[in-house]
Request: fold
Amino acid sequence: MGRAAREEAERAVRLAKEGFQKRLEMSQVGKTYRQSKTEERSRLETDRQHAEVIKDEKQMLRDEAETPEKAALEEYRRLEDERKQKDDQEEKQRSEEEAEDMFRLLDSNDDGKITVSEIQVRQTFDRNKDGIVSDEEASFFLNLEAEMSKEDFLKSGWLLAKPYFLMEKGMFSPPEPEHMMPEPEHTVPETVHTEPTEPNSQEAEYHDFEDDEAEDLGDPSEKPLEHKELSDDEQDELDTPKEEPAAEEQKPKYDEQTMELIGIADKARSEFHEADKVFRDISNKLQELNDVLNVDFGDDERFTPLHGQCFDFEDREYVYTLCPFKDANQRGKNGGGVVNLGKWGSWSGPEDNKYLQMLYDRGQSCWNGPARSARIFIKCGIENRVTAVSEPSRCEYHFDFISPSACQNPDSLVHPHDEL
Reply:
């Protein structure tokens, strides 16, 4: 063997010896990790069983509390439905009686029908307020017919005429555009003599403002009327509508006994939801732990320290990332999204040592092509590092990865002097 070859062989032995020593350390870390996770799984399984017992107890208590609550609420709804039906029936009867009264009022000759001429005698139906109820205005209330029977009036005519009767009684006014307020008339309040009335809240607010303004203006004969400048707070008070008295609670008011049953059921539901959440959280942690423990980290757990780590490799265009036992990705240096090259699949090395290759499959699909995949070729090295990435076939990637976990026992290697 030549000198150069002998030096290379000696270097390989030193590398194997150093790498194997690190492999033993990685193996020890992996065994300790598996042992701790196994113990943690045992604790979680015990905690899960305990949490399931509590959850089942809380579920039973919840079901027991909801039974009387459900019965009470169903009885309340039944009584509410009866009350509503009664109110609806009474309202319907009042409306029908009112409609019949109006029909009798309009049917001045008692012939059982209303005609255009009978509508025209009532100024109530002067829709355009010109002092005359025209034929067109009258026929509008008769469904554009010359006359209307009592039956038709009760069905549809009354719906047309009712708002005008209410306006005649002062019980209804047509809607006005929102945010419309008449311009205040600047007059001296002392010269106005009207009968005292009860102003509504908006009128009171308006007149209070008007009175204050009049006082500030003084004698109108001395200077022209000017609009008073208001402070921000005063303007906000004017612009903000007065709050209506708080309406009764939208939620139906139950009697004291029903409220007590609802409170008990609410408490039972809350306790069950909390117990169920604890159970599900423990179950999720246990599942995650089992997923890790089910991974083959090598015959002596030597690949375990690679779990949870990621390694990058850059070429001129891309950055490749390998996360052992998770996935492999690619992203462009000049922007763009991350492309998944594959998810952890299995060891894929030769039969005599399957731990020399990893397969990552089910990656992002290529355009008009197969799903991407990556194969990792592992060689002995004194550090964990991706040394090269290539794409020998479309959408199939090769990663070269060195790691002490791939180093063999140097005693199994041929010593350079053995060949002399």
Strands lie at 113-115, 147-149, 311-314, 318-323, 327-332, 338-347, 357-361, 373-380, 385-393, 396-403. The radius of gyration is 45 Å. Residues 99 and 162 are 8 Å apart (CA to CA).
